[in-house]
Inverse folding.
């Protein structure tokens, strides 16, 4: 078999793996990894096409999964940002989790508590 056809198959499989990885990282709330993975998946899927008119099945799957990964990354990031901006209880839960994970008292290190900082950043200003 021609080595070019083997290269196309490898490229489309790699694109599909990157598309799936973009969905996984989107669910892990890592949009700065998910969106580039999805972009590379689309690029590799298009490059795997070569001179033919149609994408292979793996390349089409890569494009679909990459689009889903981009959509999920944007949607989850928007949802978390909205929750931080509107829900004080959510901000307090995030601050409590940060204190539990890092062990240091945030107020001693930075001069104000994490929840106060989140409230200052995301609360509506009533001036």
């Amino acid at each position: 078999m021609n080595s070019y056809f083997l290269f196309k198959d490898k490229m489309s499989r790699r694109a599909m793996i990157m598309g799936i990885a973009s969905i996984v990282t989107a669910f892990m709330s890592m949009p700065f990894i998910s969106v580039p993975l999805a972009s590379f998946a689309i690029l590799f899927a298009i490059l795997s096409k070569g001179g033919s008119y149609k994408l292979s099945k793996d390349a089409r799957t890569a494009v679909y999964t990459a689009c889903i990964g981009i959509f999920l990354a944007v949607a989850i990031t928007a949802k978390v940002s909205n929750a931080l901006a509107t829900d004080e209880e959510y901000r307090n839960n995030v601050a409590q989790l940060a204190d539990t994970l890092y062990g240091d008292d945030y107020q001693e290190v930075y001069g104000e508590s994490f929840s106060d900082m989140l409230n200052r950043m995301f609360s509506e200003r009533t001036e």
In short: The chain has two domains: 1-76, 87-127.
